[in-house]
Design a protein that fits this description.
The complex is a heterodimer of chains A (322) and B (262).
Chain A (H helix, E strand, L loop, with lengths): L4 E6 L7 H13 L1 E6 L5 H9 L4 E6 L12 H15 L3 E5 L2 H14 L2 E6 L1 E5 L2 E8 L4 E7 L4 E5 L16 E6 L8 E7 L14 E5 L8 H10 L2 E4 L1 H5 L18 E5 L5 H4 L7 E6 L12 E4 L2 H16 L1
Parallel strand pairs in A: 1-2, 1-4, 2-3, 3-10, 4-9, 5-9, 12-13, 12-14, 14-15, 15-16
Antiparallel strand pairs in A: 6-7, 7-8
Helix pairs in contact in A: 3-4, 5-8
Chain B lengths: L1 E5 L2 E3 L7 E2 L2 E2 L6 E3 L1 H17 L3 E7 L5 H10 L3 E5 L9 H18 L4 E5 L10 H9 L3 E11 L2 E8 L2 E8 L2 E5 L11 H9 L3 E3 L12 H4 L2 E8 L7 E4 L4 H11 L4
The chains are: A alpha/beta (322), B alpha/beta (262).
The complex binds flavin-adenine dinucleotide (FAD) (2 copies).
C-alpha cells in the first residue's frame, strides 16, 4: 500500500451520487482516500462515506464574499480543491466528469502546476505514476496516459468501476479549512437545477440507457415504457431534442454515457451520436431500416417498428422480473 | 470590436481515426476544421456585424496542414488568419496548447486591443473542453463557457448555459474568453465570393520564438502527461440481427435476459 493521499470532490454534499462512490472506490485503490466539500455534509452522507472507508472530509470555509450558489462556480470549487491539496499534501485529485467539474479540475490543475487527464475510464498506479486510461475516438481506441507531475488531477467517467464499500465501516470526521478565493471575475446572475425525474436514474450514471431518435416520430412513450421496465435512464438523439420531443441528448456535444447496456430506438447512429455512447458494453438497436448504420456497432438488433418492438420487450421483461 | 476565434485542425469524425506512435494521425485527406469551431466563427461574425465594425482573426495551433482550418474560417468571413506552427509545439498537452494560444492573443492584443476570444465547446478529437478555461487563466481574463445564448451590452457579455442539468446565466466584462455550444447558432454556409477569395487569401505563420514561448512550457517537453500506449479496440462481434415478424420485442427481451442484463 502506498502512502499516497487521494482527494475526491463531493459536490453537492447533500447526497453521495453513484459516480462519487465509484471515485471513492478508485481512490482507495490508489492510497489514503479523503473527501473535499464546500458545504456541510448531512448525517446520511457522513454514514455513507464511512461505509466507503473515508475517515476525513475536508470542508472548505469560504470567504463571506462568496454567496449562495456562487460556491458552485468552477473558480470557487477549484480554489477549494487547490487549497485542500496544499493543506493535505495530496498527490491525486479525482472529480466526476461533468462540464462544471472539468472546468474546476482545469483551474485547480493550473493553480497547482498539476497534470490533467479528462474523461478517464479507469485510474491505476504504474511504477509509482498515476495512469488514466481513456476510451477515445468514439470508443474505437484505448489510450493510457501517465501524469508526470507530482500532483495529478483526473476527471473520471461514470461506470469506471463497481462501487465497493469497505468490510467494516469507519467513522467520518469533518475538518474545516479556510479556502482563499480570488475575486470572482464572473457574476452568477441566476442558477436553476433541473429536478430529476423521480424513480429514474440519471443519464450520466445509469447502468442501462434507452434512447429514442427521430424514428419515434415524436412519441417517446414506448422508449420510456421499456426504460421503466428495465429501471433504465432515458436519453435521445440531438435531432429528437431539437424537435422538442425530449430534453437531454446523448453524443459528442451532449451527455457521454458508458453504461452496461445502451438501447437505441429509431436512432440512425450518426458519428456525433456514436461518440457519446460507443463505449457502452453492450449495444442494442431497434430500427426499421435494415441498413441502419447503428447496426455496425450493435451486438444485437431488431429490424422493425419501435412502436411494436419496444412495448413487447417491456412486457416480457416485466413478466420476467415479477 | 476585435475578436480572436480559435480553430483546431482535427481528423474528420466520419473518417477512420487512429494513432501512430501515440500521436493522432493527421492527414490532409481527412483533416478538417473542428466543426464546433464553426459555431465560434459564426458567433464572432454576428457580434462584429451587430457592432457595424470590427475584425475577426482566426488562430490555429497546428502543423502546416492546419491552414485548412484557417481557409474554412476565411470562407465563412474571417478577416485575418494566424497559423501558430512549430515542431517545438508538437505533442502539447492542454496546458501547452493554452499557453501557445494565450501568447498569440497577447501578441495580437499588443497591436490593437482584443475584446473577445471565442472558442468552440470542445475539439472533436481531444474532447477535453478545457482549453478555453485554461486560455482565460493564462490571460487573466474571465471565462464564460458553453454559451447557448450570448448577449453583449455596455462592455459586458451575458450568457445562458445549460449543462449537467443546470441552467445558469453568467456575465462578465470584456475582455474575456467565451466558448459557445453547438446549440448557440447555425454556422452560415460560405458564399461563392468568399470561397473564391479564401483560396488565395494569405495567412501569417508564427513560430514559438515569434511568441517568445519558453521551450519547456510547450510541446512534448512541457507536457505534464505522457501517452504510454494507444491501441485500437478489438472489433465487435458480428451483430445478431433479428427481423421483426411479430416476435421482435420478445427476441430483444430474451437477448437481455440470456445475457444477464435485466
Ligand atoms: C456539430 C454537430 C454536433 C452534433 N452532436 C450530436 C450529438 O451530440 N448527439 C446526437 O445524437 N446528434 C448530434 N448531431 C446530429 C447528428 O449528426 C445526427 O443528425 C443525429 O444524431 C440524428 O438523429 P437520429 O438518429 O434521431 O435521426 P435520423 O438520422 O433521422 O435517424 C432516424 C432513424 O430512425 C429510423 N426509423 C424511422 N422510423 C422508425 C420506426 N418507426 N421504428 C424504428 N426506427 C425508425 C430510421 O430508419 C433512421 O435510421 C450533431 C450534429 C452536428 C452538426
Ligand atoms: C484523444 C486525445 C486525448 C487527449 N488527452 C489529453 C489529456 O488527458 N491531457 C492533456 O493534457 N492533453 C490531452 N490531449 C492533448 C490535447 O487534446 C491537445 O493539447 C489539444 O490541442 C487541446 O485539447 P482538446 O483537443 O481537448 O481541446 P478542447 O479543450 O476540447 O478545445 C476547446 C476549444 O479550444 C480551441 N482549441 C483547442 N485546441 C486548439 C488548437 N490546437 N488550435 C486552435 N484552437 C484550439 C478550439 O476552439 C476548441 O473548440 C489529448 C489529445 C487527444 C487527441
Amino acid at each position: 500500500m502506498t502512502n499516497r493521499t487521494v482527494l475526491v470532490l463531493l459536490d453537492p454534499a447533500t447526497e453521495v451520487r453513484t459516480s462519487v462512490l465509484e471515485l471513492l472506490t478508485i481512490a482507495r485503490s490508489l492510497g489514503r482516500a479523503e473527501a473535499v466539500t464546500l458545504e456541510a455534509p448531512t448525517v446520511e452522507v457522513l454514514a455513507q462515506l464511512g461505509a466507503y472507508g473515508i475517515e476525513t472530509v475536508h470542508q472548505a470555509e469560504l470567504p463571506a464574499a462568496v454567496r449562495g450558489d456562487e460556491r458552485h462556480l468552477p473558480a470557487v470549487v477549484a480554489a477549494a480543491l487547490a487549497a485542500a491539496v496544499r493543506r493535505t499534501d495530496a498527490d491525486v485529485v479525482l472529480v466526476p466528469t461533468s462540464f462544471a467539474a472539468k472546468e474546476a479540475a482545469a483551474l485547480a490543475a493550473h493553480a497547482l502546476g498539476a497534470g490533467l487527464v479528462i474523461d478517464a475510464a479507469g485510474v491505476h498506479d504504474e511504477d509509482g505514476r498515476i495512469v488514466g486510461t481513456k476510451r477515445v475516438f468514439a470508443g474505437s481506441w484505448d489510450t493510457a496516459c501517465a501524469v508526470t507531475t507530482d500532483v495529478a488531477v483526473l476527471t473520471v467517467r461514470s461506470n469506471a468501476v463497481v462501487p465497493q464499500p469497505v468490510e467494516t465501516a469507519v467513522s467520518t470526521e469533518v475538518e474545516g479549512f479556510t479556502a482563499e478565493v480570488p475575486e470572482l471575475p464572473v457574476t452568477l446572475v441566476s442558477r436553476t437545477v433541473k429536478p430529476r425525474t423521480s424513480g429514474r436514474p440519471s443519464l450520466e450514471e445509469a447502468a442501462v440507457v434507452v434512447a429514442g431518435g427521430r424514428g419515434t416520430h415524436g412519441d417517446f412513450g414506448p422508449v420510456e415504457d421499456l426504460a421503466d421496465a428495465l429501471g433504465a435512464a432515458v436519453g435521445a438523439s440531438r435531432d429528437a431534442v431539437f424537435e422538442g420531443w425530449f430534453d437531454t441528448y446523448i453524443g459528442q456535444t451532449g451527455v457521454t454515457v458508458a453504461p452496461r447496456v445502451y438501447i437505441g430506438a429509431g436512432i440512425s447512429g450518426a458519428p456525433h451520436h456514436r461518440g457519446g455512447m460507443q463505449a457502452a458494453q453492450v449495444i442494442v438497436a431497434v430500427n426499421s431500416d435494415p441498413e441502419a448504420p447503428i447496426f455496425e456497432i450493435s451486438d444485437f438488433a431488431v429490424v422493425g417498428d419501435l412502436a411494436d418492438v419496444l412495448p413487447q420487450a417491456a412486457e416480457v421483461i416485466r413478466a420476467h422480473k415479477a | 470590436m476585435r475578436i480572436v476565434v480559435t480553430v483546431k485542425y482535427v481528423p474528420d469524425i466520419a473518417s477512420d481515426r487512429g494513432f501512430q506512435d501515440c500521436r493522432v494521425v493527421r492527414t490532409p485527406a481527412e483533416g478538417t476544421i473542428n466543426e464546433l469551431d464553426e459555431n465560434a466563427i459564426e458567433a464572432a461574425l454576428q457580434l462584429v456585424e451587430a457592432a457595424g465594425e470590427g475584425e475577426v482573426v482566426a488562430v490555429s495551433v497546428a502543423g502546416p496542414d492546419g491552414a485548412v482550418a484557417l481557409r474554412k474560417a476565411f470562407q465563412m468571413g474571417a478577416h485575418r488568419g494566424v497559423l501558430v506552427s512549430d515542431d517545438a509545439l508538437a505533442g502539447s498537452d492542454y496546458f501547452g496548447t493554452a499557453a501557445a494560444l494565450a501568447a498569440t492573443v497577447e501578441r495580437l492584443n499588443a497591436d490593437a486591443p482584443v475584446d473577445l476570444v471565442i472558442t468552440g465547446m470542445a475539439a472533436l478529437d481531444g474532447l477535453g473542453s478545457v482549453v478555453p478555461t485554461l486560455l482565460a487563466a493564462h490571460l487573466g481574463w474571465p471565462a464564460l463557457n458553453l454559451a447557448k445564448k450570448v448577449a453583449l451590452a455596455d462592455g459586458a457579455v451575458t450568457i445562458t448555459r445549460e449543462a449537467d442539468d443546470v441552467t445558469e446565466e453568467l456575465s462578465a466584462r470584456l475582455p474575456l474568453v467565451l466558448s459557445v455550444a453547438d446549440t448557440a447558432n447555425k454556422p452560415r454556409l460560405p458564399n461563392f465570393k468568399l470561397i473564391m477569395a479564401a483560396r488565395t487569401k494569405e495567412y501569417e505563420t508564427w513560430s514559438a520564438a515569434d511568441l517568445a514561448l519558453k521551450p519547456d512550457a510547450v510541446g512534448q517537453a512541457g507536457a505534464r502527461t505522457e501517452t504510454l500506449s494507444a491501441a485500437p479496440r478489438p472489433p465487435r462481434d458480428e451483430v445478431e440481427l433479428v427481423t421483426d415478424k411479430g416476435e421482435g420485442g420478445k427476441a430483444l427481451a430474451a437477448f437481455l435476459i440470456r445475457n444477464d442484463l435485466v
